[in-house]
Amino acid sequence: MSTQMPTPSGTDSYRNVAAIVIALAILQTATGALSVVGPLTLVSQGAGPLKIGAIVSSYALGFLLGARLAPREIMQIGHIRAIAGFAAAASLGAAALYVSGAMAWWMLIQFIIGVSVAGFLASGESWIADAAPSQSRGAILGFYLVTSKLGFMAGPFLVAGAPAGTATGFLIVAALLTASLIPVCATRRAEPAAPTTQPFSPVKIWNFAPSAIIAATISGMVSGAVLQLYAVYIQDFAADSVTQTAALFNAAMIGGSVIATWPAGILSDRIDRRMVIAGLALTAGAAALVLALFTGLLPRIGIFAVAALWGAGALSYYGVAVAHAADRAPDGQATSTMSGILMVWALGSMAGPLVASAVMSLTGPSGLFFFAAVALFSLTGLMLIRRSGTAPVREEDKSDFEPTATTSVSVVELTDHAEEDADWSESQEAEFEDASWRD
Q: In this structure, what DSSP letter does residue 242 have?
């Protein structure tokens, strides 16, 4: 008598994670909306680029702290309670931003929101890591990341009709954060075990994958600055509705990254990943330079097309950098390496808005993309230097590319869990076949 392991169908696999994926998509919709509402409100209050940059950096600091502390909180109170607490805190924070325009108040609240968003992401992504079966984890990871990016694209459109500086935009963000609780509370699935990944220190990763550290740092600096300050930049050419133009500009950037991520990853599986990073950075740097120099001369459709090209380059190479680090990581330490790379990216996302806002205060809103161009061209040169000085990883030693998000430590566990579960499944199948033969 043979014994067979029950395996969920493709539809069941997606149904198992549907509730939490929807919740995370709503969360990203809220953060996308806040990326427009926050900066434009500050501009309407007369805030300069340096003030806005400092406030954005406080969010990044909170995000970094939340990503580090969330696993401990999940372990103590469970995923559902953690998600409920983080979502409630973020929702209250979004509403509280309208209370005062004082810089200290905004920095405090943005810090709290950053901690809460990171905690929500860590809770939700570790849930996905536990619920997704090994045979479909790659597809489910891609499904989640695309859904998440679509949510971030949709957010600015939901606040496009809200006048800058009014309570409407903040209420929409707070409502979205509250709504993200509904799918989580409605699910019947049992809570998974808490995440346990401990990230490597940047110094340790530098010893075996310095190119990944360089690329992740510049990725955090550039994406952290542009995705949080683009609403300030678009005022140079937004003749009618600033919020609507911001929504379209954001959609172009994120749409470009959605289209380019997989092709870039597949190409990096075939050639030196550092050359792929260099090519993407060069493309994004050229697009950034065009946006910095010729925004006033290009038609709106041209600006959005260049923004999409920028997103295809600048927002796609982080996953390639993570794959490069995983290729060179010690045996069995890929997940800790990936988590450490995320911490490096988060540190870059704190520094980027400060540097970019300083440049903008000297040169105007176009300074955002002057900063991005210099950083990306520098990355191109550094990757070429590293490529000439260090031999590439052999094809047989490369790990397969997996799409990777700059969100929380938990999402990078998917690949590691998939490998563990595949090994477990093979051993179980061998045992079942042996038992069947004896019967």
A: H
Q: How far is C-alpha 8 from the chain's CA centre? A: 29
* Of 379, 380, 419, 336, nearest in space to 71 by CA: 336
Residue among 70, 35, 32, 73 at smallest CA distance from 411 = 70
Helix axis angle, 367-389 relative to 210-233, nearest 10°? 170
The total number of structural domains in the chain stands at 1
Tell me the CATH number at 186. 1.20.1250.20
Residue 29 resides in a domain: yes
* Helix-helix angle 210-233:49-77, to 10 degrees: 120
Helix%, strand%, coil% for the chain, nearest 5: 80, 0, 20
Q: What is the separation of C-alpha 310 from the centre of its chain, rounded to a whole number of angstroms? A: 16
The angle subtended at Cα 348 by Cα 112 and Cα 369, nearest 5°, is 105
Structural domain includes residue 6: no
- CA–CA dist 416, 419 (Å, integer): 5
* Interval 243-302: pLDDT, tens: 888 999 999 999 999 898 888 888 888 888 899 999 999 999 999 999 999 988 888 899
User: Taking every pair of C-alpha atoms in the chain, what is the biggest distance, in angstroms?
Assistant: 80
Range of 123's domain? 14-438
Q: What Å distances lie between residue 85 and 96, 112, 177, 192, 203, CA to CA?
A: 16, 12, 11, 17, 34
Q: Give the integer Cα–Cα distance in Å for 163 and 166.
A: 6
In a domain, 404, yes or no: yes
Whether residue 5 is contained in a domain is answered as no
Q: Which pLDDT score is estimated for 111?
A: 96
